[in-house]
């Protein structure tokens, strides 16, 4: 299932408006088909994997990160129907689909056809579908906040000089993260003083540059969407994954509004001293409130810099 989740990441974010789904078909201990959601959302992962598997799909097991769709579309057939017609023996799903057109109906159709269905949720699946599931549950995009810091927590020198805190490997990794986002957001001060391009500058991925969003009360520059408050991200149509790059004011406002789902920190082995702090007030009244909010999700070394990602832990309502 985790391998299917990794496949799904290849479709992000180009699968929009559909979620990026991965599918692996296994028979006799051998992978006979694999697929991920195509650009613009069709064909679906299951359709691609089944086409690759051909006749070997009969009697096989399909691992799919999201419940196969049950609704017919002008753009293609329902994946639950395709799996039935292909004669698979078992379907293992990583997550149930919250879309009311499918929710439970895809599984029901498979079982009615005599196909065994199992549910195997994993953290990798949850991460691969985070944007889609967050949209469905909370009515807003999944938000990643990125911070590039010195060892002493500064994002710039006292005079605002910030290029560059981190080295080339870390900056390339940031561009790969941009390429997996539907939109990228900065605050008005960052836009005015840094004049960021907010694009993807990795060879072969330039066409994956996300839409640009500005948090400000000013007038929208050409080609840039403006929102006046973090809560307005719900109005960003077609955005499942929002990447917030700062600066300190925008970062603090998103944290204060509790709208950050993933925190990504690039820490350089430098000490600045009297510099610009990464964050301002985020609304915590006591130290106790700061504990229990974040769990380590990933860490790695990027050249001389360290990358750490944390997921927001929220109590179920």
TrEMBL record:
GO molecular function, one term: 5-amino-6-(5-phosphoribosylamino)uracil reductase activity
Domain CMP/dCMP-type deaminase span(s) in chain numbering: 1-118
Record carries keyword Oxidoreductase: yes
Alphabetical list of Pfam families matching this protein: dCMP_cyt_deam_1, RibD_C
Keyword Hydrolase attached: yes
Domain of life, source organism: Bacteria
InterPro entries in UniProt: CMP_dCMP_dom (IPR002125), Cytidine_deaminase-like (IPR016193), DHFR-like_dom_sf (IPR024072), Eubact_RibD (IPR004794), RibDG_C (IPR002734), Riboflavin_Biosynth_HTPR (IPR050765)
Membrane-traversing stretches: none
EC numbers: 1.1.1.193, 3.5.4.26
Pathway field: Cofactor biosynthesis; riboflavin biosynthesis; 5-amino-6-(D-ribitylamino)uracil from GTP: step 3/4; Cofactor biosynthesis; riboflavin biosynthesis; 5-amino-6-(D-ribitylamino)uracil from GTP: step 2/4
UniProt KW keywords: Hydrolase, Multifunctional enzyme, NADP, Oxidoreductase, Riboflavin biosynthesis
Family: In the C-terminal section; belongs to the HTP reductase family. In the N-terminal section; belongs to the cytidine and deoxycytidylate deaminase family.
Function: Converts 2,5-diamino-6-(ribosylamino)-4(3h)-pyrimidinone 5'-phosphate into 5-amino-6-(ribosylamino)-2,4(1h,3h)-pyrimidinedione 5'-phosphate.
Protein name: Riboflavin biosynthesis protein RibD
Organism: Qipengyuania polymorpha
Lineage of the organism: Bacteria, Pseudomonadati, Pseudomonadota, Alphaproteobacteria, Sphingomonadales
């Amino acid at each position: 299932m985790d391998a299917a989740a990794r496949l799904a990441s290849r479709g992000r974010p180009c699968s929009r408006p559909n979620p990026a789904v991965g599918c692996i078909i296994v028979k006799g201990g051998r992978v006979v088909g694999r697929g991920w959601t195509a650009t613009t959302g069709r064909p679906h992962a299951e359709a691609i994997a089944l086409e690759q598997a051909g006749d070997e799909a009969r009697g096989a097991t399909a691992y799919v990160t999201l419940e196969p769709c049950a609704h017919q579309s002008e753009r293609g057939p329902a994946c639950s129907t395709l799996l039935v017609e292909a004669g698979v023996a078992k379907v293992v799903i990583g997550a149930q689909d919250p879309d009311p057109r499918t929710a439970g109906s895809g599984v029901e159709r498979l079982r009615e056809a005599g196909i065994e269905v199992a549910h195997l949720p994993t953290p990798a699946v949850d991460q691969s579908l985070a944007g889609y599931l967050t949209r469905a549950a909370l009515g807003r995009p999944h938000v990643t906040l990125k911070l590039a810091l010195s060892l002493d927590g500064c994002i710039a020198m006292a005079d605002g000089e910030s290029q560059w805190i981190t080295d080339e490997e870390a900056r390339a990794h940031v561009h790969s993260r941009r390429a997996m986002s539907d939109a990228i957001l900065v605050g008005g001060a960052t836009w005015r003083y840094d004049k960021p391009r907010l694009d993807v500058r990795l060879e072969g991925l330039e066409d994956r540059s996300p839409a640009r969003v500005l948090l400000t009360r000013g007038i929208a520059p050409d080609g840039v969407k403006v929102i006046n408050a973090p809560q307005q991200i719900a109005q960003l149509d077609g955005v499942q994954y929002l990447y917030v790059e700062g600066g300190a004011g925008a970062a603090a406002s998103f944290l204060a509004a509790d709208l950050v789902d993933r925190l990504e920190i690039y820490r350089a082995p430098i000490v600045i001293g009297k510099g610009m702090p990464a964050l301002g007030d985020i609304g915590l009244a006591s130290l106790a409130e700061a504990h229990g909010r974040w769990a380590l999700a990933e860490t790695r070394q990027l050249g001389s810099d360290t990358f750490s990602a944390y997921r927001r832990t929220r109590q179920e309502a």
